[in-house]
Amino acid sequence: MPAKTVQLANALLNHTLRNVPYVPPASGYSALCLTVPTATTPGVEIPTGPTAYVRQPIVFSPASSGSIVNAVSVVFPVALISWGNILAGEIWDTVGGGMRMYLAALGTPRFINIGEQAIFSP
User: Fold this and answer.
1) CB 36: neighbour CB atoms within 10 A?
2) How many whole angstroms separate alpha carbon 54 and alpha carbon 71?
3) 70 SS3 class
4) What's the mean pLDDT when you consider all of the chain?
5) Which positions ≥6 away from 68 have C-beta within 8 Å?
């Protein structure tokens, strides 16, 4: 089950209860992790560069009953070298760096080898 990061929880609490402005990002970016993150510690993300890995934009359907799902498939580039065993995913507010907002361990880890793609359907 996805969880908010402490940084996002603090920003939302300060916004709603202390009138401290929080400007949500225009888009969220999906990241793949080789370790399982926690609410306070990011996972180890696949390195960019010769791997062809880069965070991918994620579009969501409207929230309902306290949950939300991606509206379209999130398609990562074809791996130029092995990415290793993907254990978790995160949602960040920018394509590089930025604020980590949500995290979730994968139910079933997935090994991404040369020539394969990670695709997450709605």
Assistant:
1) 15
2) 20
3) strand
4) 94
5) 60, 61, 62
Q: What is the pLDDT of residues 44-71, one digit of tens each?
A: 999 998 889 999 999 999 999 988 899 9
Beta bridge mates, 86: 110
Token pair belonging to 111:
């090994």
Given a contact cutoff of 8 angstroms between Cβ atoms, the answer to whether 115 and 78 are in contact is yes
Distances (CA, A) of 67 to 1, 3, 30: 10, 11, 17
Q: Are 48 and 82 in contact (CB under 8 A)?
A: no
pLDDT category at 1 given cuts 50, 70, 90 is low
In degrees rounded to 5, what are phi and psi of residue 11?
Answer: -65, -40
